[in-house]
Amino acid sequence: MNVKDTVSVSSVGPRMTGTTTIITGAGSGMGRASVERFLAEGGNVVAVDIRDEGLAELRSIYGDEHLLTATCDAADQAAVNDVVQQTLDRFGAVDVYFNNAGVPFVAKPIEEVTDEEWDLNMTVNLKAIFIAARAVVPVMKKQGGGKIIVTASMAGLRPRPNLGPYTVAKGGATHFAKALAIELAPANIRVNAVCPVAADTPMLPQFGAGDHITANATPLGRLCSAEDVAAAALYLASDDGNFITGLAIPVDGGRSI
Ligand SMILES: NC(=O)c1ccc[n+]([C@@H]2O[C@H](COP(=O)([O-])OP(=O)(O)OC[C@H]3O[C@@H](n4cnc5c(N)ncnc54)[C@H](O)[C@@H]3O)[C@@H](O)[C@H]2O)c1
Fold it and tell me: Which of 50, 82, 160, 241 shows a CA-CA span of 20 to 30 A to 112?
């Protein structure tokens, strides 16, 4: 059987050629791995982070032909609107918006959680998706479609002890992706979430000690990697995921079985 009979042409070459993806939290961990993967797949990438350090490194490695960087708080509406406009000015479209920026939560009993900790989790891990949608959905509607991806968490699907605000924000992020998926399907905008288990990134030690951050937590016997998440995001962002919307994909080595 000829491979062309079963595999679309777009899935046998670089998968993001001619597309533009905005990735938040791009200076570190999963965001950075996604920037590198999407560039390797031929796409243009707009790398967004609240800190410039990681972005500067990306600029020095990849130059500026296919990469634009922006130091920006992903939960600040005016700043995100500005990034979307910069993207349009530079690359002419926003094909994918990957809401990946997040903040951790140091595990503690619910009665010790402060208002500030609760609010920061809701703002960065949940409200930023709303901020991004307001900025990017009108652009995608005008373009005739687009893809929105959210990095949620296994903690949002299966809460672990002492992670209250984080599990609520990530559970909300997953649910919000589904709500957007059903609302935006008629506009040909696909919306999905990736739900990593404990992942070996600079964020991991910031959750505090516990079973939730050990490789023992997964049947495949290792932590998630930043590249595992980049690969799942690539599937959802590319034509390979063209009939996939409203999913929350566990990237969890089987923990959710
Ligand atoms: N590491 C894990 O165990 C794990 C597990 C499940 C889900 N997640 C989620 O994965 C995503 C990526 O995390 P990571 O593990 O790569 O962590 P990371 O700390 O390596 O990277 C997170 C990046 O987000 C940036 N950021 C934080 N607040 C921001 C804001 N308001 N605006 C823009 N950028 C901001 C940080 O500066 C940092 O560069 C997060 O949403 C996180 O909650 C992480």
Answer: 50
